[in-house]
Structures are given as structure tokens and as C-alpha cells.
Amino acid sequence: KKLKKNKMFPKHNNIINFFISLPLLFILNPVFVLIFFLSSFLIDADHYLYYVFEKKNFSLKKAYRWFVIRDSKWRKLSTQERRKHAYSVVIFHGLELIFVLLLLSKIYYPLFFIALGFFMHLVEDAIEEVPLGTIERKLFFTYSVYVYFTKTKFK
Length: 155
Fold this sequence. Notes:
The protein is mainly α. It is built from nine helices and two strands, in the order αααααβααααβ.
């Protein structure tokens, strides 16, 4: 079974979440809508942080290309092969952080919209990850750390 090319790179998340944000402008404070919109794609900053940690390079352009090439290779592997490897640790992707943000939003309300943006992004990632058989690595930060330290690193 051949998997389709990844269609959820940042520009696609931005477009989807822009259209989700538009109707929210009619019922919520525009600042909260902006927080939701920005957090729904700025969550991906953790991919860049992972690149900097792994490659010791700060080039955003090189980081993007590196992930595009890795993703292409990753998708060519069978589900069984993907499960033998650790892909990356992405510190902002995980239900654990969303839960913490929701708890803290009781103290500082705008954090609720960051949690909502992060959650929306995870839903979009899940749509991409389920066919790959590796959804756990994006839903649970603790699982991605476990896999990172116990599986072969994916190059």
C-alpha cells in the first residue's frame, strides 16, 4: 500500500486554521482568536528546536528541507519498519502539555486558546499519522521520549 505525500506542512495547517478562525471572530474576542490561530501552527516550532538540537544548525531553511526529505523517506517505510525507529521528540506535541495548559487556563484564561490551538493541530496531525501507524508519537510527548531512547534513530 503506497502512502500519499504529506499534505500537512505548515502552509496547509495555516490555511485550515485560518478558515476555522474566521467564524470564531464573530463570537470571541479577536485577541483570543489570534492566540488560537497562532498557536495552531507555532506548535511546530518544536520541530525546528529538534533540528537545532540534532544538527547544531540554526538555519530555518535547512531545517525545513531536512524534515521534508526525512518525511519522504519515513513514508516509504512499512508500518512495521516505522515502529522500529524513533523519528523525533517534539516537546509541544502531546496531550500532556494541553492538559497542563488547560489547568493553568483556570489562572490565566488566554492559555485556554493556546491549548485549543495545540489540540486542533494534534487533530490535523492525527489525520496524517493514523495511516502511518505511528499516531502515538504525536499524541503523547512521554511516548515520543520513550521511543527516542529505546528505538533506533531514524536518519
